[in-house]
Fold each of these.
Amino acid sequence: MPNVRLVIEYDGSHFHGWQMQPGVRTIEGEIERVLEMVLREKIHPVYASGRTDAGVHARGQVINFFTSQEQPDVLRVAHSLSNILRGQLSVLQADIVPDDFNSRYSSVSKQYTYSILNRLGPAVLDYGKVWYIGSKLDPQRMNEEAKAVIGEHDFTSFRGTGCNAKTPVKTILESEVLVDGPFIRYRVVGTGFLKHMVRNLAGTLVDLSRDFLSLKSMGAILAARDRKQAGVTAPAHGLCLDWVRYKDESAAGAAR
Amino acid sequence: MPNVRLVIEYDGSHFHGWQMQPGVRTIEGEIERVLEMVLREKIHPVYASGRTDAGVHARGQVINFFTSQEQPDVLRVAHSLSNILRGQLSVLQADIVPDDFNSRYSSVSKQYTYSILNRLGPAVLDYGKVWYIGSKLDPQRMNEEAKAVIGEHDFTSFRGTGCNAKTPVKTILESEVLVDGPFIRYRVVGTGFLKHMVRNLAGTLVDLSRDFLSLKSMGAILAARDRKQAGVTAPAHGLCLDWVRYKDESAAGAAR
């Protein structure tokens, strides 16, 4: 059975997260609905590099599925998904990959960007894509604190409730805060992430900058291994999965 | 009477252009409606650096108006506009300026960016903010052609019908095409622009890249002084007014 891989962009505000659930419109559910129309067979499961939370966006999510069609027209699949889910989901790349490719287990690393809009007026052109904070933040300080999580650490302080990962130890490869006009962007690359981990890191960087926390550094919060010492969970709509990288190839995804 | 200047961002898709017209929702009309509520007096006219076409966005439009209130609370005006027109218009800066300041006539230059999305899948996260073109364009060639309009020229070939400017001669200070991930962005700075001029320049750069035109260079099209020799008028929703610059000060606006 051919193994089809798609790189997709989606606006998380149109879906109740990735995972199929009865009675709600999810990314997995909508993709499977369209695939059944196009390929004339039930496609399940559709694998993803990771399940994004409700409201989280993606510019380069990677998914794969198997079809019984011997020579599936992957471009037709791509155009059908992009057209039927217009403005909500778009296919950026479509190809047939080896049988042993799995979008989740074959991944080596992935990048998320958390976007904050920090200025007088709330978001308009980036409405629903950024966390608006009117009070002045200190991006230089946030960048210094962001560096502290690089490496292999126990991320218990940044682990969301209900996380079912076997271990709270994760490896962060890159972590920095960049100023981009009125935006402050937290960019983080890791081999894997706990539930809500990026949103908790972003919220903690903001709360450190606002001086809302008892512990005054990312290092101290990390060492505490206590979720209560970290900051707020930043809202889902500021987060975007940029790309996923696989063995022996460059990153799949739209962002740089 | 105090002269109040505001720097504003807006999403052009929510309005029928700048200028007040009976029976339609315009940016000028909505601003005057809110100002009357906040300042408890009829405010008219509200001056703008220029009237953007219906559908065109702004990240740094500059406007000004006079009020009879001796000490107007400009921050309250800013917050009221941003809150009442939430998601549609936002005030980025508010101050009181000298009487002789006029957002249109005091301006020295302004920058527009025309954004094209050039990849397999249509826009999702930038839906309504970019012109989606699926066929592969040649941004290097577009950049070379874009340079040809720098300087003082007769822009008759790029003048929209109904343009009431006294002369078709305009001065372009910067003109370039940049690649930004899957986006191709045409950035142009000028002292002033004719009606539809930036959209006609962007459409012509695209049509030159697609080899849709008889004349094969921007220079030849400019020299022809004939609108029929230039390319298509690019759709309004890909265009954004980034900033407006004034004498003796830096650019007012959100973009870099």
Note: The interface with chain B takes residues 8-11, 57, 59, 78, 82, 86-94, 119-125, 127, 129, 180-182, 240, 254-256 of chain A (CB under 8 Å).
Amino acid sequence: MRKSLATVSLSGPLSEKLTALATAGFDGVEIFENDLLGSPLSPEEVRLRCADLGLSIDLYQPFRDFEAVPADTLARNLRRAERKFAVMERLGADLLLVCSSVAPESVDDDALAAGQLRLLADRAAAHGIRIAYEALAWGRHVSTYDHAWRIVEQADHPALGTCLDSFHILSRGSDPKGIADIPGEKIFFLQLADAPLMTLDVLQWSRHHRCFPGQGGFDVAALVAAAVRAGYRGPLSLEVFNDVFRQAGAASTAVDALRSLLLLEESAGLSAPPAAAVPSGFAFAELSAADTEPLRGVLEALGFAHTGRHTGKPVELWEQGEARILLNTGVSGRRQGPALTALGVETPDPDRAAQRAEKVLAPVVPRRRDPLDAPLNAVAAPDGTEVFFCRTEQPDHPSWTGDFADVTSRARLRERTESPGAVRRIDHIALTQPWHQFDEAVLFHRGVLGLEADDSLDLADPYGLVRSRAVASPDGGVRIILNVAPAPDAEDARLQHVALATDDIISAVRRVRQRGVGLLPIPANYYEDLDARCELEPARLATLSELGILYDRDERGEFLHCYTATVGRVFFELVQRTGGYRGYGAQNAAVRLAAQHLHRHGA
Amino acid sequence: MRKSLATVSLSGPLSEKLTALATAGFDGVEIFENDLLGSPLSPEEVRLRCADLGLSIDLYQPFRDFEAVPADTLARNLRRAERKFAVMERLGADLLLVCSSVAPESVDDDALAAGQLRLLADRAAAHGIRIAYEALAWGRHVSTYDHAWRIVEQADHPALGTCLDSFHILSRGSDPKGIADIPGEKIFFLQLADAPLMTLDVLQWSRHHRCFPGQGGFDVAALVAAAVRAGYRGPLSLEVFNDVFRQAGAASTAVDALRSLLLLEESAGLSAPPAAAVPSGFAFAELSAADTEPLRGVLEALGFAHTGRHTGKPVELWEQGEARILLNTGVSGRRQGPALTALGVETPDPDRAAQRAEKVLAPVVPRRRDPLDAPLNAVAAPDGTEVFFCRTEQPDHPSWTGDFADVTSRARLRERTESPGAVRRIDHIALTQPWHQFDEAVLFHRGVLGLEADDSLDLADPYGLVRSRAVASPDGGVRIILNVAPAPDAEDARLQHVALATDDIISAVRRVRQRGVGLLPIPANYYEDLDARCELEPARLATLSELGILYDRDERGEFLHCYTATVGRVFFELVQRTGGYRGYGAQNAAVRLAAQHLHRHGA
């Protein structure tokens, strides 16, 4: 279906919004009136700009407080409408959104509303314009879509139809099944927005917290499917009032928006891009740095061995069990301090994964590849992290590891792997996101990789709340934690970490300490509280306290974890899960974050 | 009364919080458990630190999910409590907050709850500790203060009392009158927080939006008065979970907090600082700059005359009607581009105004004053703007204008003042605040100057929402608009403007244009919409459009306004109010803000 976006959903002046949404690939646009009023472009110039960009103007909106009013107000409202028809003719727009009145002087009289809307439609038709009447969730007398439709039906004018808005419908808990009762040709427009489920005054909820479909808690797909079943053939159009999008860059927000519509079409059964090739684990994490020496020290202490050297690039492979870390001193590493710049995921079908990624607007990363290198598809996540689709050492596919020449005997590696406390695999990766791309990042990882999102958590950092949401494959093979730091400019606003799984964290920590690498000190007060809360066996508690290991449990099992110091933007976590524990130790986050601040700044 | 603050209300590590609240002048502290758990300080060290700082530890909190549970859970909960008693003994804290249970296994049985709390109190008493039981607004079975009190009464143990929390009481709409029924000596503690009135899930409301008393919509003073009438003699203690305070500097938040308590005591009739000397108008606005040439050009075009030169400092006085602008090239001006650094307010009693300001923690600005200068009291507002208390050319007080030597004949000034379109006075001043000091700034201007606050508005800027709230004297003589820009680091995050009142804005604008100073261009689209909305007489509309004057009206009158270009951080607005219009043209803010962005960056 055609795809549109209301200008209010993007930041900046009108001309930049139009460019951004055309560049992203939208077909059309809803002109939000305030954007036109604040623009130095005349309606004719906007029309021309849209034509140049290949955008149709699908809707002009909103026209407020029209219907069910006394005669003198009606006369003024019709005059007001005529002025807007004139603007629309200059714009080349032929559909006007009229939202249900909130005016105190409007009366609760459907027949009056219908009669006045019929009059308006008649005036509009004279200009070749149609009217789409929509129920605002907070409309004074008309606040549900079925009520708005009854009035439209009663008015019975060919230039009058209804506009369905998923926010107004779903925020009130209305059942979209009733959409089936509306003839498709009378659904003149379909506006889409999602929102997180929250108990908040609906007007505030609407004005500040709307988000793109798939980023909130509404079943927007079911609503779209119902409208299409009813016969709706107009565009899918996003209208999102969101405090964050208002501040974010228009270009990236527009891509995020279009991706959400593409995924929505798939969810609603209206399209079938290549299915997600859900990854089964991490193939590698790539750390880039001009000087890898500090990272090498930490990796050695953690038991990693330098096992390979890329045959064509300044990249080292370090391994332990199935955990693989690449150290890259190439171009990207020279631009910044140690940072996690890429991750590889094990996927059952790298080609399909890449095809899907491209279909849902994941930017493909151009590779400078030697003719002999294994093919490797990668896309960039919203935060710039490159995601590679890998099949590591499987017979059915060339392996990226083939590009590395061995530098350590595998026997020596095996010996390390089998020692107690060895790292088995990457348990999870945590990436702090730019503050304005958090919801986009969650949807990206769900839509592109086929991961599932946990609930969003607020973690108490000494300097504010960290918003945190995990996305993971159903079996937990790939787990990525997306965070947003409270202060976008603070040094911790770009932290990343790699959590390494072991079956014996006690031995692992003892070995790390023997090798002279300190772990994050945890206050004694934490262990006294842990004793009060969890009644651990005293000797075990003493060991955890001695080694600075944090502890959590859920109804399935236990979680033990500890942290290295931070090198550049990166630190490592050692974790041991037992019995199917599902979380990431959120219970301990406040203590860990406080300890990290103190460790960085000196206690 | 003694004043305390819960550590959770401030940002940073525990040791910095303690220093901040002692420095601000608090008497005591509530130790929020997570702050201790994340601290490397032992309880003994915290005790010592508090003693050194002169702080008593008034409460240790919270102890959760204790009461009305099965026997085995009770045993575990008592063990947990004993661990906490041990920590409290080391801290030297003798009061523990127990909040009503949210645990699924707790049962709705007051007698059981009372019996178990009695048991807890008995255990506590053995350590010299008392228990303050509080109803959480979202408690599973106990969620109102009167219910919590009935259970405490039933338990009937000398070491068990109740804790009243204004948020939990007022967020549920409970009537604090019932506090009179609680014997004062059984109110063991009083926790205070305000919050903006909003329809939001009470847990989210509590965790993110609490604020200091006077900054929200609750009548906290009435609750305090009721508790004191009932006989409560403990501290007034603030416990505020607020997303902004978590990020703001602890030192300034602590001062803001203590000021709110001082004003609360006054509101509750518990103290009587010198009454506010409500200002009647602006004496001056002071602009500082290394190079005042661009400002002089704008002032001349606006019709101001350079009338005086300070006898001892590099400060010029510019006048028109009762509007006075100081141009300062002294120390503060050299540190930054043109900026509004001070304002003078006309006050009936400068000495009382200064005394009150000092009593409510407005930092007094040290003056380097010549022996011959008129005495001038000034305090610093939270954003650093200096506020001077003035009596300009009144017989009962030395006038600050006496420090200026005339440089223009008053006759020439009078001639300008009587010409059509002359500026009469400063209508209002708008100051963009640091994002984390918005609520503090509103309370400061209310509490220190005796101004009244309008509702908070969200204005749509092309790059986000501007939060805006006006504070004004009842007669409108002093009006200050406090704004917060959407992006704290953007160039518009520190804008300030001076709005100048005229009786004839048409003539004023024509003169400014004749003098070759351009005003902010307003898009033609705005005037077409204005015609549609307001049906102005065509000739008048044409004039407004020609001159770039914005228009608004309310039920009392009209408002016409326009803007100069921005010089440094400062711009000027010309305004004409007729018939008692009360606002500031918020209707036009989106168009104006869009025009300003375009004007700064080129259309």
Note: Residues 232 and 561 of chain B are 53 Å apart (CA to CA).
Amino acid sequence: MFPKLCRPLSSINFRTVKCFCKPRQLNKYYNIIARANSSASSSFLCDKNVIFVAGLGDIGLDTSKELLKRDLKNLVILDRIDKPELVCELKELNPKTKVTFMPYDVTVPIAESKKLLKKIFDKLKCVDILINGAGILDDHKIEATIAVNYTGLVNTTTAIMDFWDIRKGGPGGIICNIGSVTGFNPITQVPVYSGSKAAVVNFTSSLAKLAHITGVTAYTVNPGITRTSLVAKFNSWLDVEPDVAELLLEHPTQSTKECAASFVKAIEKNKNGGLWFLDQGILEDIKWDKHWDPCI
Amino acid sequence: MFPKLCRPLSSINFRTVKCFCKPRQLNKYYNIIARANSSASSSFLCDKNVIFVAGLGDIGLDTSKELLKRDLKNLVILDRIDKPELVCELKELNPKTKVTFMPYDVTVPIAESKKLLKKIFDKLKCVDILINGAGILDDHKIEATIAVNYTGLVNTTTAIMDFWDIRKGGPGGIICNIGSVTGFNPITQVPVYSGSKAAVVNFTSSLAKLAHITGVTAYTVNPGITRTSLVAKFNSWLDVEPDVAELLLEHPTQSTKECAASFVKAIEKNKNGGLWFLDQGILEDIKWDKHWDPCI
């Protein structure tokens, strides 16, 4: 292990002491991260096993369809409510991919999440990618918004580490978390939702930086305003703006198909730590401002 | 009401259509926000009624002591556990200020928070400032971390709006939320905690922008690494770094007293939307990057 001098940081309030990083298990696992950052290929998803939480949702369904164009081996859709007709439609899209549906509510205790994942791993043996996409947008429902959008995503992520963490002999894996542009800058009329998405963005950026320890890489896809049933009508916090949905939709938006196309492009880029901004059919990797550095 | 052209935004992925803001109740309440942004005075806190959630905590206690130097009228401390000897100590510090303690766990249902606040408002008639400071740092406890650090803060904030919201005939008020530098950039070893603080930062920035509607201004104080019992020893997520506390403390930190001094300075500056960075005894207002704009 070589102590490594961090890059010099110029801001006055940075913790400007010389900081010596203590890399852990670095050399052995650099290949996982290197692989993650070099896979911008259209065949990347071919033969992969993918778990998609909320893969029948508005953005989810079109993203599932887009994924099925890539000849996955398995697409396991976990969603709160079964919609058999949609699952049938997906199954018929590509005979090369086995599509499975299993009911899952992300707000269950983490032990339940682990049980469900065990079933999936027992069956498929290996899972390559977990997409965490469960989300609600209703600022009248404070507990539910936070429980689904943040706690549920953290629990599902934590649960899959039992199977993926290289420290436990796992093979590593890839986590794709659905954030939102509101995690960068809020829609002020839905502060509870926006805050929950900021949590997702921040949480996932940590996961990416822990990849050398866990073997699990991570990034967020952050859709801009997308024409979904979620956005068509929703409650603002304390009704500060009853017309928030209508006002948002007066400005340029994107269709769920456009969003799904960018979404799968981002997955194919497979960039550890990517902060993907998906707006109006365009895909861009955001650079996050550095306000301070814990130096560890 | 005049439609107002937003500032032009240059980034390629901004929603660049001309956006006409719909200001609501602006003229009537501009004075509240103007007042909020012009009160950088050392006598600002004199005769004020302040509610301090977690005012007996590590940073809380020294901040309470610092507040008591300002001749408040009332300091109502809400904390999970009563510590009578500390409350006695605070009561003796300044006879001009009435110090009261009431037990409060921020994870109770919002109806309970409203009941407690009603008692306080009934007694004091008016409350000027609410400081939300409850926080835990233990990434083994996912639900508790999010429930205390984010959901509890949102619920307490939402509860006080019953008494402050100008749309309900209230007088407005000031919310000071304790975030953390980890809300800007995470300590990657505690991603759950860091994410919860990012949520607080994002949530509060929305509150500030809603002040023209609610009459309630808001800002965050975001301490850097401060030598508290919270930081002395804590669990990292999945034990990715068992020595995270020790490693952090190898770098420059600040004492709770230094933090408290900056904290009260920030309160005195009373800047709506302030993103106060309190590190190593220095107080700085952070400028947040704009990655997109909802244009509403």
Note: Chain A is about 40% helix and 15% strand.
